[in-house]
User: Fold this.
Amino acid sequence: MTQMSQAVANLKLNLAETRAREDQLDAMIRQFETQLARIPRQTMYGGTPLDLALSAMEEVEERLLHAQTTRRHLRSIKERAQAELEALEVVQRVEEARANLAQLRSQGSGDTLDEDTQAQILQLEEYIAQYSKQAERAITAGSGGQSR
Assistant:
């Protein structure tokens, strides 16, 4: 497995783990929000002392804020990983196009190639030029403009 393929596989695993963690956090956040809504009712109708209810609400709200902050951080990581994965996939497609181009060119010189092969070569050259620029922009944007 090439180094790039390994990086793509690692990013995909990371994204799957991130999505699972995000689902867990979403469930926790819903649970904490439900708890916060129920505590005042328990005070009004269940006979829970006011001090105990306030203390419980404070504790649940701390957990809620922590879960929300963690989810925000996780989403930041996920967005970065998705951008990186997209950039690597573009680079892989460009490398495949270059390999195809080299194979077509090795079939003969420009004079001996049929029109269809010459059209394919032109199409691959345009594809490589376009997507090389796209990959460069994606990589540059993903690195925050810093060199790697």
Remarks:
- Residues 3-142 form one domain.
- DSSP finds three helices and no strands in the chain.
